[in-house]
Amino acid sequence: MARIAGVNIPTNKRVVIALQYIHGIGQAKAKEIVTKLNIPAERRVQDLTDQEVLQIRETIDADYQVEGDLRREVAMNIKRLMDLACYRGLRHRRGLPVRGQRTHTNARTRKGKAKPIAGKKK
């Protein structure tokens, strides 16, 4: 099992798919990494040499922000919005949708499980 950027990537999948298990690397960045290092698209992780795994690891460390650093930056951006007390920050603080979605109905993912209101039978 190859370990890249602190993540164990699955061995029986193609390299492009396996790289997407790393937070911060999607389909486009995975294809970009593979083409930059001249690794065939159909190559599987178990077939990679130690040298190729090392090249992938070094490329990701040098050129991309992934895993802990990326999560930390996103959390700091949200904290900054909350400290500014701008509209988006207030929505984050209250746990409501941030991007203009309606909340009268729906929005259950952000608001959590529906809470019953006492005395609202009729």
- Quote the distance from N terminus to C terminus: 60 Å
Uncertain spans: none
Order of helices and strands: EEHHHHHH
Helix count, per DSSP?
Answer: 6
Let me know the largest β-sheet.
Answer: 2 strands, antiparallel
Give the helix/strand class.
mainly alpha
Strand residues, percent: under 5%
Roughly how much helix do the residues carry, as a percent range?
40-55%
Please tell me what the overall shape is: elongated
Q: Count all strands and give the number.
A: 2
Average residue pLDDT: 92
Strand ordering within the main sheet: 1-2
Q: Gyration radius, to the nearest Å?
A: 21 Å
Description:
The model has no long low-confidence stretch (mean pLDDT 92). β1 (2-4) and β2 (7-9) form a beta hairpin. A two-stranded antiparallel sheet has the order 1-2. The protein has 6 helices and 2 strands; from the N terminus they run ββαααααα. With 122 residues, it is mainly alpha-helical. The chain starts with a strand and ends in an 11-residue tail after the last helix. It is elongated. α4 (67-84) packs across α5.
Summarize the structure.
With 122 residues, the protein is mainly alpha-helical. 48% of the residues lie in helices and 5% in strands.
SSE inventory with pairings:
Layout: E1 2-4, E2 7-9, H1 15-19, H2 27-36, H3 50-63, H4 67-84, H5 87-94, H6 108-111
Antiparallel strand pairs: 1-2
Key descriptive features of the protein:
6 helices; mainly alpha; elongated; 122 residues; two-stranded antiparallel sheet
